[in-house]
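re: the backbone from monday

yeah here it is again, tokenized this time
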């Protein structure tokens, strides 16, 4: 399973890249606004900076919700960098846009997926990725992991090559469950990725190793 980081924060992206496990980045207008990136020129420049940090795909989202508007934005976004993947919402005009863009060899990430039917439509239209939102489903007392599993079964049934990009990941348990089910990608905040490092027995074991080492050094000094 690939790890994407879901942020527009350059420092966090660099930290994940330096960790050695980062495969790509997802962003959206909300994440850009959170970093104070406003105005088309600034947003595009920021996407370019992100692409220069990572080696994998970088999802850049359109703002338009009409077919012509989405195509126009997509044409500008793909000029930024070869690693840009155009992020299109799961709406009727979005599916039409996915079909057109994919026919032109442009990678598309269909976002705001909340049902297996939506994922199937996006895949049929040629999406490179579908992004089911796990955490937002959990927020309304629906098991987001059941959706990931349902999409995995459907895609496997028919040999569909569209990648399942699990989004709205809230904690490390989400990441592990996605890996167990067979999601192709999990896009996470940096905190969730770093949380995978932690286990109390690791901390206890390391503390004991270090304590034993210090004790052995004292013994060596006494012998000397």
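seq for it, each position gets an aa:
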């Amino acid at each position: 399973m690939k790890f994407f980081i879901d942020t527009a924060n350059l420092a966090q992206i660099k930290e994940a890249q330096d960790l050695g496990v980062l495969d790509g980045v997802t962003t959206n207008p909300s994440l850009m606004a959170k970093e104070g990136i406003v105005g088309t020129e600034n947003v595009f420049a920021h996407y370019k900076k992100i692409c220069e940090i990572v080696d994998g795909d970088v999802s850049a989202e359109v703002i338009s919700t009409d077919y012509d508007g989405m195509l126009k934005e997509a044409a500008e976004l793909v000029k930024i960098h070869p690693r840009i993947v155009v992020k299109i919402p799961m709406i009727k005009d979005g599916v039409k846009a996915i079909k057109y863009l994919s026919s032109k060899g442009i990678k598309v990430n269909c976002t705001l997926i909340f049902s297996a039917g939506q994922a199937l439509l996006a895949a049929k239209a040629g999406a490179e990725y579908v992004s089911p939102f796990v955490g937002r489903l959990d927020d309304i007392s629906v098991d987001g992991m059941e959706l990931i599993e349902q999409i995995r079964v459907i895609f496997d049934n028919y040999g569909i090559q569209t990648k399942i990009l699990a989004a709205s990941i809230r904690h490390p348990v989400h990441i592990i469950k996605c890996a167990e089910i067979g999601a192709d990608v999990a896009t996470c905040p940096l905190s969730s990725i770093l949380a995978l490092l932690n286990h109390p027995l690791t901390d206890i074991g390391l503390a004991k190793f270090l304590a034993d080492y210090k004790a052995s050094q004292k013994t060596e000094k006494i012998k000397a």
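The chain is about 55% helix and 15% strand. The CA atoms of residues 36 and 43 lie 10 Å apart.
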